[in-house]
C-alpha cells in the first residue's frame, strides 16, 4: 500500500513535491517554507506529513480567515512564529468612487508581472477596500511594478498583517439527487440547469474542482470536492447519502451564501 492510492492521479506530482520537502527537513534538520497553497494542497500536505514526530507542519496566510496559505515544514525542535512565513500585505489605493475593480482584473495584472500564482495569497474585498497578500520575497517588486489595473491607476500601501480584513465563508446546506457522480451531472443538478449547458460550461473552461480547472465533463467527483462555476458561485460536496429507490445518488452539498 502506498500513499498515492488515497489520492487522484492528477495529485501525484504535488505529493512528490511534499515528500521532497519532508525529506529535506529530515536531512537538513531545518525548516522549509513553501509558496502559497490552495486549501486542497494544504490538506494533502497535512495528510502526507501526518503525525510525524520528527517533521511538523503549520500554515499561515496573513490571518485565520485567509484561504490561500504558505506551509512551513519544520523539525520538532523549531518553534515557528508568524514572521517565519514571510508574508506581506498591501491595500490598494485607486479612484474607488469612479472605478470598480474585480478579482479577475487584479489577478490578471499581478500575473502580467511575470510571477507565479503561488507567490500570491488572497485578494480580499471589503466594500471599496481591496487588500492583496503576497510572499515577502517578491513584495518590493510588486509594489514597484503594479501601477495600473485595467485603465485604473493604483498605488499600494503596506499594512500590518493584523489589519487584513477577515473573510468568513458561510455555507448553506441542500440535498439533491443525481444519476451519477460525473462533473456535468452534478453541476447541472446543483445549479438547476440543463445537462448540455453544464457540459458546455465544463468544456468552456468555466469550472474548477478543488481550485483546478477541469475540462472533462466525465470527471468523477468525490465527497469533499469544492466546485466553482464561473458566474454561478461555489459549492462543496459534503456527502453521498446512499441511493434512492430509483437508483439515484442522494447528495448533500453546501452553497456559499
Walkthrough of the structure:
There is one protein chain. This protein has six helices and 15 strands. With 257 residues, it is α+β, with helices and mostly antiparallel strands. The strands form four sheets. A six-stranded antiparallel beta sheet has the order 10-15-14-13-11-12. The chain has a four-stranded antiparallel beta sheet with strand order 5-6-4-9. Strands 1-3-2 form a three-stranded antiparallel beta sheet. The model has no long low-confidence stretch (mean pLDDT 93).
End-to-end distance: 40 Å
| Range of helix content | 10-25%
Shape category: globular
**Average pLDDT taken over every residue:** 93
Which spans of ≥5 residues are poorly predicted at pLDDT below 50? none
Q: Beta-strand percentage?
A: 25-35%
Main β-sheet, spatial strand arrangement: 10-15-14-13-11-12
Oligomer: single chain
Characterize the main sheet: 6 strands, antiparallel
Determine the structural class based on helices, strands and strand pairing.
Answer: alpha+beta
Count of extended strands: 15
Order of helix and strand elements from N to C terminus: HEHEEEHEEHEEEEHHEEEEE
Radius of gyration: 20 Å
Query: Helical stretch count?
Result: 6
Amino acid at each position: 500500500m502506498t500513499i498515492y492510492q488515497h489520492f487522484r492521479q492528477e495529485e501525484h506530482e504535488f505529493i512528490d513535491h511534499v515528500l521532497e520537502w519532508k525529506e529535506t527537513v529530515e536531512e537538513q534538520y531545518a525548516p522549509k517554507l513553501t509558496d502559497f497553497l490552495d486549501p486542497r494542497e494544504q490538506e494533502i500536505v497535512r495528510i502526507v506529513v501526518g503525525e510525524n514526530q520528527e517533521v511538523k507542519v503549520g500554515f499561515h496566510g496573513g490571518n485565520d480567515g485567509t484561504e490561500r496559505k504558505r506551509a512551513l515544514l519544520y523539525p520538532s525542535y523549531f518553534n515557528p512564529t508568524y514572521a517565519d512565513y514571510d508574508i506581506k500585505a498591501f491595500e490598494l489605493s485607486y479612484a474607488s468612487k469612479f472605478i470598480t475593480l474585480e478579482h479577475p482584473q487584479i489577478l490578471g495584472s499581478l500575473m502580467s508581472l511575470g510571477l507565479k500564482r503561488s507567490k500570491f495569497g488572497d485578494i480580499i474585498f471589503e466594500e471599496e477596500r481591496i487588500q492583496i497578500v503576497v510572499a515577502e520575497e517578491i513584495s518590493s517588486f510588486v509594489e514597484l511594478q503594479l501601477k495600473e489595473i485595467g485603465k485604473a491607476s493604483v498605488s499600494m500601501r503596506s499594512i500590518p498583517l493584523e489589519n487584513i480584513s477577515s473573510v468568513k465563508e458561510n455555507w448553506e446546506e441542500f440535498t439533491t439527487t443525481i444519476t451519477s457522480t460525473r462533473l456535468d451531472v452534478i453541476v447541472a443538478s446543483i445549479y438547476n440547469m440543463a445537462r448540455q449547458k453544464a457540459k458546455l460550461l465544463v468544456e468552456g473552461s468555466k469550472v474548477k474542482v478543488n481550485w483546478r480547472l477541469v475540462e472533462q465533463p466525465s470527471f468523477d467527483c468525490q465527497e469533499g470536492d469544492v466546485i466553482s462555476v464561473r458566474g454561478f458561485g461555489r459549492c462543496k460536496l459534503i456527502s453521498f447519502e446512499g441511493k434512492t429507490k430509483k437508483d439515484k445518488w442522494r447528495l448533500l452539498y453546501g452553497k456559499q451564501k
